[in-house]
Design a protein that fits this description.
Elements lengths: L3 H33 L5 H16 L5 H8 L3 H13 L3 E5 L7 E5 L1 H23 L3 H28 L1
Antiparallel strand pairs: 1-2
């Protein structure tokens, strides 16, 4: 039961949380428009993007690696990969060392798609980024990290009492 003192102490944070939640939804909607204009969901573009980065760094990535980076379940990741493979944006290949693993690689078509979308996304992100000083960006990052750590600790508590 929430009492008046708890409500008073958390009201300011709750208002900020709601604003952050609405802002996150707006950001997602705007980036989704960019991805949709190329026939992709945000998750599919992120998968292609991380494969693009990995290819440039010479780091092979498998489905589970990408799933962790884009925060989707294994089942969802399978659907993402199947669709991107069907559209000839990526291909599955065998791991050079471990035959049990699969590596994902962008096709030329997938590489071109990422390179075509990146200027729009980069321009959008740069404009938002320029609204903040380097100090403000660092402070914001620290706040996000602190919130992540707090939420992770609450999950542990909740899991132990379930």
């Amino acid at each position: 039961m929430i009492n008046n003192q708890m409500l008073t102490e958390t009201l300011g944070f709750l208002q900020n949380y709601l604003q952050l939640s609405n802002l996150e939804r707006e950001i997602y909607t705007e980036t989704e428009k960019i991805h949709n204009s190329h026939g992709l969901s945000t998750e599919k573009f992120h998968a292609l993007f991380f494969l693009y980065v990995a290819a440039n760094e010479g780091e092979p990535l498998g489905p589970s690696d990408i799933g962790v980076k884009i925060n989707v379940t294994r089942a969802s990741m399978t659907g993402v990969i199947d669709d991107l493979e069907k559209r000839q944006l990526l291909e599955r290949t065998g791991h050079p060392v471990d035959r049990r693993k699969v590596i994902l690689k962008l096709t030329e078509k997938g590489t071109q798609l990422v390179e075509n979308q990146m200027p729009l996304i980069t321009e959008w992100i740069c404009k938002v980024n320029q609204a903040f000083t380097p100090e403000e960006r660092n402070t914001f990052s620290l706040y996000l990290m602190k919130m992540r750590q707090t939420l992770d600790s609450l999950k542990v508590i909740k899991n132990n009492h379930s």
